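Morning F.,

Quick status update on the modeling queue. The single chain you submitted on Monday has been processed. Sequence for confirmation:
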Amino acid sequence: MFKLLVIGVIIIGKDPFALFGMQAPGIWEWGQGNKIYACMMVFFLSNMIENQLMSTGAFEITLNDVPVWSKLESGHLPSMQQLVQILDNEMKMNVHMNTRPHHS
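Structure tokens below.
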């Protein structure tokens, strides 16, 4: 949203710095003289920042709201065999916990 707002302000040409009683920086003046380049720069730089913020490499598996695998903790993705083993163990443990008699 911020990206689109900045691009819109560049296209309209309204000086946002005047609203705060500040003098417009040189980059603003350059952007007003080169609107197409300024909009492209804002678009590509903001996309680069968005991609960097979103690419944490996180991969987590939960079963019944209980985390059973985290790539961030283990440092790697589980193999198919590991994944089947983890889920099988978790399912067996859940069945075992549900069949135990409860004492009051």
